[in-house]
Specification:
Blueprint lengths: L2 H141 L3 H48 L11 E5 L4 H7 L4 H10 L2 E3 L6 E5 L3 H17 L4 H30 L6 H9 L4 E2 L2 E2 H18 L4 H10 L14 H11 L4 H8 L11 H14 L8 H16 L4 E7 L4 E6 L6 H18 L7 E6 L9
Parallel strand pairs: 7-8
Antiparallel strand pairs: 1-3, 2-3, 4-5, 6-7
Amino acid sequence: MTEIQITASVVGVVALVLGYIIASTLMRKSIASKSNTLLDDAKKNSEQLKKDKILQAKEKFLELKSEHEKVINTRNRKMNELEAKATEKDTKLNQRLEDSKIKSKELESKFENLTQQQEIVERKEKELEKAHARQVKALETISGMSAEDAKSQLVDALKAEAKTEAMSLIQDTIEEAKLTANNEAKKIVIQTIQRVATEHSVENAVSVFNIESDDIKGRIIGREGRNIRALESATGVEIVVDDTPEAIILSCFDPIRREIARLALHKLVTDGRIHPARIEEVVAKTKKQLEDEIVETGKRTCIDLGIHGLHPELLRMVGRMRYRSSYGQNLLQHSRETANLCATMASELGLNPKAAKRAGLLHDIGKVPDDEPELPHAILGMKIAEKYGEKPDICNAIGAHHDEIEMTNLYAPIVQVCDAISGARPGARREIVESYIQRLKELESLALAHPGVLKSYAIQAGRELRVIVESEKVSDEKAGAISFEISQKIQNEMTYPGQVKVTVIRETRAVNYAK
């Protein structure tokens, strides 16, 4: 390389170095001036921001100060009001205290006056007692009777007068209650009876079996009477074949047996084959058929009456009632009639008619048991109903309808009343003449045994008792008491259907003659 080229390279490098130095110097100066400018701006901004914050802090302080002053002023105002009220209360209390002191002084003076007046009254009372004692002594001297004797006579007189007035008041109250109760009861009973009507039958111990001709009688008797003996043995019924034309008499106290014998005879006569073996077969089939018919009768009766849920054994007993009579009245018809009466009366009284109807239907099931225990039919019926799951109120109504047990619900008196209505209505039952006459005599004798009774007459088949009393011995008030006492005695000592009306008659006559 030549020297000229070397020299040129050195010069170029030196120029670059000098240019870099100059550029860096200029750059440092520029940066220094900018930094100074930024610092000045930052100082100015910070001063301005500081001033702004100080102003805001002053404003906030002034605002808080004003709010605090408001709160303090409000609290001071309330405290002043409370102080004013307390001062006012103190003033009032002081005033009341002064008033109470004044009143206490007045009361003390009044008390002193009352004490003085009481002393005066006590003195006067002592003087009055002394005067009363002098008067009593003077009266005892004049009347010749002590004060105790006079008092006892006065008490006796007052007792007699009070007793007479009480008897009159009691009689008036009883008459008024009877009038109101009788009107309402008659209305309910009449409405009930009018809505129920059933037929009745007469109880018999015999049944008549009609035949077409008397020739059949010989076949029924059989050779040497073996057919009739077999029939009587199988049925337990006495068969009477006599001269009655075209009829055979079946005699037995059990109506079911009589019905079995009648149906069996009808089958044998219709079939024509009559001999001991055939008789036993037909009687056995008839018994089974009648048992089925009894159950069906019980079911049909319950369906007709709208009674559901009866035990099958109770259904069978209801069916057996069809073949049982009581005083000439068919038991099933009587029970149906009683059930309808109970339902109607329960509806009128606001009770459950279904429960009353159930109790009325079952009230006499104790009359148709399979065995014959030594129990009243009402108690036996109650035990049977309990055994087969009837409710307690139904069982009590069954057991209490003849007063053997205490009534515990309203269905019991309804059943008792409806049973009496069904049995006592005209034509429902027969009554033996001897017992009827005996009952009338007992009624008259019971009335005649009462003091003051002159005559007595049982009328209207024993449903009314007319009692004539002696007017000299019995007053009008006493007549009412005699009527009540005789009715209570009849109710407690006698058994009778329906009710007995007791009428006491007291007659006074004034007779004069013009001459």
